[in-house]
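Readers of this paper often ask what the protein records in our data store actually look like. This encoding replaces a full spatial description with a residue-level series of whole-number codes. For reference, a complete record is included directly beneath this paragraph.
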Amino acid sequence: MTSKDKIELLKGDITKIKTDAIVNAANSSLMGGGGVDGAIHCAGGPAILEACRKIVAKQGGCKTGEAVITTGGNLPAKFVIHTVGPVWNGSKYDEENKLANCYKNSLRLAINNHCKTIAFPNISTGIYHFPKKDAAQIAIETVVDFLAQTDEIEKVIFVCFDDENYGLYEKLIQ
């Protein structure tokens, strides 16, 4: 089985996906926000925010490209991996590497917590304005490279909320 065989593409709502972990495109405060972040906190209930508060009390927020893990609360996923994507600034601040680190660090955290399946949203492509085509390319290349080095992850699902991202991912995965 190749790395690409472990990748699945869905159009829909990541809060409805039954996997070991879903990834949240969080902000550095970990206190919830808009978009995917708000939807995950809303659907997952107060247990996620409570777990985030404990992380913040222990280590402060979460830096761009880093990831932390909490309970999935009321979600079908057991865990939520919160990662902070970069705000797009025209590639002036190494945004591409920071975005790749979101995927790598989320996958490492999944492995460290015995997760075999993980679902990702389109990190940084909403209010952070990362160009969607570039973000999709980075996401897929990073995940394919990571999966080539481990058998511990059985499936990665890219969950696209909109048609534009879905179309971009579909072309790149084929």
Observations:
- The mean pLDDT is 96.
- Residues 65 and 102 are 4 Å apart (CA to CA).
- Helices lie at 35-44, 46-59, 95-112, 132-147, 163-173.
- Strands lie at 7-11, 21-26, 67-71, 79-84, 117-120, 155-160.
